């Protein structure tokens, strides 16, 4: 039987966190962050994290778990989030996966297993050296030749994703696209909630959030 999971997604400042708290209160839920910045400690203001009062007693998971300089990948997030979903269901509660990092959400809900790439640090170091020495086009051309599907999805200036795609190929002999293409139906019983607002309203909310950040001591 598929585990139930509610996903709440949407753009910055649309109101995901507040709505998630209200729904969690109503449906006996707990919240898992799908925000790549809120994972890190000390970024309370810039990441717009809810205060303890704003959380209203609802357990929040995957907040403040990383040091600012701690390496962390989408694969790492996938493992942690899936474990939390399992644990919350075992407690008889409803998990809410909430955030604006679409890649994190997709990695959790899609039955996509990241390839093991033990020993990737040495390869990544070499790729970074090539990149920093003006070899940006060379690496992107490698990707175009090895995995044209991935090259179409990845911007030529996105070193992190180019490097990841090349690492997977060099370590496994398979393209990262070949892993992605194996995705099938999610093994969660999903309720997907996508939030939106009128553009002018959203801009006003973003401006108000930024003003609040500066007032709170962002700089």
Description:
The chain is of the alpha/beta class and 219 residues long. It folds into 2 domains: 142 residues, Rossmann fold; 60 residues, Histone, subunit A. 48% of the residues lie in helices and 12% in strands. The protein contains 10 helices and 5 strands. Strands 3-2-4-1-5 form a 5-stranded parallel beta sheet, sandwiched between helices. β2, α2 and β3 form a beta-alpha-beta unit. α5 packs across α6. The longest helix is centred in the middle third of the chain and has 17 residues. It is globular and about 50 Å long. The N and C termini lie far apart (49 Å).
Give the distance, in angstroms, between the N- and C-terminal Cα atoms: 49 Å
The helix content, as a percent range, equals: 40-55%
Average the pLDDT over all residues and give the rounded result: 86
Count the strands? Answer: 5
Spans of at least 5 consecutive residues whose pLDDT stays below 50 are: none
Helix vs. strand class? alpha/beta
Q: Overall 3D geometry?
A: globular
Q: Kindly give the count of domains.
A: 2
The CATH H-level homologous superfamily of the largest domain: P-loop containing nucleotide triphosphate hydrolases
Assigned CATH class of the largest domain:
Alpha Beta
Under the CATH scheme, which architecture of the largest domain would be assigned?
A: 3-Layer(aba) Sandwich
CATH fold category name of the largest domain: Rossmann fold
Summarize the structure.
The protein has 219 residues and is α/β, with parallel strands linked by helices. The chain has helices at 16-26, 52-55, 74-90, 102-109, 120-132, 136-146, 148-153, 159-172, 176-180, 199-215, and strands spanning 3-9, 29-33, 60-61, 94-99, 188-194.
């Amino acid at each position: 039987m598929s585990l139930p999971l509610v996903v709440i997604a949407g753009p910055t400042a649309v109101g995901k966190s507040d709505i998630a708290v209200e729904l969690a209160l109503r449906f006996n839920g707990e919240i898992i962050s799908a925000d790549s910045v809120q994972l890190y400690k000390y970024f309370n203001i810039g990441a717009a994290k809810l205060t303890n009062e704003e959380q209203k007693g609802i357990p929040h998971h995957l907040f403040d778990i990383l040091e600012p300089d701690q390496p962390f990948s989408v694969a790492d997030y996938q493992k942690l989030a899936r474990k939390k979903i399992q644990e919350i269901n075992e407690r008889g509660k409803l998990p809410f996966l909430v955030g604006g990092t679409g890649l994190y959400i997709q990695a959790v809900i899609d039955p996509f297993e990241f390839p093991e790439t033990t020993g990737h640090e040495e390869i990544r170091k070499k790729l970074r050296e090539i990149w920093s020495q003006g070899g940006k086009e060379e690496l992107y051309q490698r990707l175009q030749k090895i995995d044209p599907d991935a090259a179409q999805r990845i911007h030529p200036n996105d070193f992190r994703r180019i490097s990841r795609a090349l690492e997977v190929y060099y370590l496994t002999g398979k393209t990262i696209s070949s892993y992605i293409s194996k995705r099938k139906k999610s093994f969660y019983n999903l309720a997907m909630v996508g939030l939106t607002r009128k553009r002018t309203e959203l801009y006003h909310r973003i401006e108000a959030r930024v003003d609040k950040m500066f007032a709170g001591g962002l700089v």
